[in-house]
Amino acid sequence: MIDYQTYCQIRHLLTEKKLGLRQIARELKLGLNTVRKWARQESFKPAAIPQRPSKLDPFKGDIVRLLEQHAYSAQQIFQQLKERGFQGRYTIIKDFVRQVRPKPQPAFLTLHFAPGECAQVDWGCAGSVPVGSTQRRLSFFIMVLAFSRKMYLEFTLAETMEHFLSCHQHAFEYFNGVVRQVWVDNCKVAVLSRAAGSITFNPRYLDFANHHGFQIRACGPSQPQEKGRVENGVGYVKKNFLHGLPLTDFQAVNPAARYWLDTVANVRVHGQTQKTPQELFAQEKLNPMHPLPYESAVVGAIRVNSQFRIVVDGNRYSVPCQYASSQLTLKRFADRLLVYDQEKLVAEHVRRYDRNQDYELPDHVAPLLLHRKRAREQKLFLRFLALCPKADDYYKQLEQRRLNPKHHVQKIVALSDLYGIEAVARAMEDAFTYQAFSCEYIANILQQRQHPPTEPGALHLTRQQDLLELDLPAPDLSIYDSKNHPDSPTPL
How many other CB atoms are found less than 10 A from the CB of residue 188? Predict the structure, then answer.
């Protein structure tokens, strides 16, 4: 007997690869008759497990009749069967009674709600969705008005407090009003604990409820029927909207959900009311919303690392570099992050749900880059001043004559690496003599000294004081005497 996986391999090699029976037998190391048998089967049929005879077989009908008459326990049935000649043990009777005993079906009251009285909320899971280079769990928030069955649907990448409150806010905006009660289950964002009939609600959720003027009602543990409208709504979303929907981009899910709400979910004829939710929504009596939206952010302290980054959802976000290794206050919204130094807003980021990414704002690193640039320039200027005693005076002349003296300083220091410090120092002294203040002049002097002309040329004086050290012979003026000049005319 082969298993289901081997059967699928046989069918795949036969139908897709077009292999023969002998080839399949060699590929899977099976007998030829086995391959031939299962190649003829259109579906996998496991072998029937043979049923061994049991001492209880003659008495099974009696057990069923006894349970139909009365809700006997397994021990009571065991005693009666022993009187009828049963020779087996109690355990097999107990196992059989557990199988055939009719399971009681609980009865539930049908709840009726007045218009605008109640809304029921819940979370649902929709698998995962790609976000950047990672996968995130995709959840959806659903709120259903108990009277009209009109629903609101929103997909999120987390089920934290800021998402929970933000979805409530968006739902009230969608309905353009607030109900008098909101029924929730025992999720931690709503209910912190239950003990001795006392319920401790999450203080942030209580504050949100007080802001909008509704009461919170928590359903009993493991009592989903108490909020059956939203439970049915979760199933309806999975079977209708999500069924067959390719989840390839989170940014496209919520617009598609809003379109589905307006064209399918809230305009369908409801099976119980026989009216559309949109039609009954006209009878809802919702309270007006608070004129100011509630700030749904979760506030807490956060530590900045030495690279002036904070870590949220597995991603790194920058703050101004002067706050490195300090403690700031973070406000986490569902769509953005705000970082404060006491009351001062120092950074704002769009909240991302990728993982292991770094998000840096140019303004946050600019002071550090400027400081590093100034440090490099200071180090370069110190090297320039060390070239020769006249370097400071030379720089002052550069400031007076050139638009960008730092550029010339950088080039002259580079020339010192190429030609040596002594050569550059002498060239700077010569440049003072010529009153030539430019890196191009220094480079020209260095190049001429390193590569002198091969043929003698005209005399080049390098210093003005050298003109005073020349010894010139006295001129011979006799050549200008007319008597000695060969071209002078002969006297008559």
Answer: 12
Distance from C-alpha of 356 to C-alpha of 314, rounded to nearest angstrom: 6
What residues does 191 pair with on adjacent strands? 201
Measured between alpha carbons, how far is 78 from 92 in angstroms, rounded to an integer?
Answer: 10
Q: Which helix (H) or strand (E) holds 93?
A: helix 90-100
Q: What pLDDT does residue 180 have?
A: 94
Q: Which of the four pLDDT bands, split at 50, 70 and 90, describes residue 348?
A: very high
pTM greater than 0.90: no
Confidence of residue 225 (pLDDT cuts 50, 70, 90): low
Close Cβ partners of 247 (under 8 Å, ≥ 6 residues apart): 126, 127, 128, 129, 138, 253
Nearest C-alpha neighbor of 149 from the set 176, 185, 184, 118: 118
334, HSE (Cβ side, Cα atoms, 13 Å): 19
Which helix H or strand E contains 124, and what residues bound it? strand 118-131
3-class SS of residue 182: strand
- Domain residue spans in the chain? 4-39, 66-100, 118-281, 298-360, 367-451
d(CA 14, CA 29): 15
Q: How far apart are CA 314 and CA 69, in angstroms?
A: 63
pLDDT in tens, 429-466: 888 877 888 888 888 888 888 776 666 556 555 555 55
The CATH number given to 118-281 is 3.30.420.10
51, 313, 269, 61: which is closest to 162 by C-alpha?
313
Q: Measuring CA to CA, which residue among 59, 118, 126, 117 is closest to residue 93?
A: 59
Q: Is the sign of the CA dihedral 189, 195, 196, 201 positive or negative? A: negative
Please check whether residue 357 is in contact with residue 318, taking contact to mean a CB–CB distance below 8 angstroms.
no
Main-chain phi, psi angles of 18, to 5 degrees: 60, 40
| 358-359 and 315-318 beta bridge pairing | parallel
The pair of three-digit structure tokens given for residue 60, joined into one six-digit string: 């099974």
Here the tokens at position 297 are: 């952010």
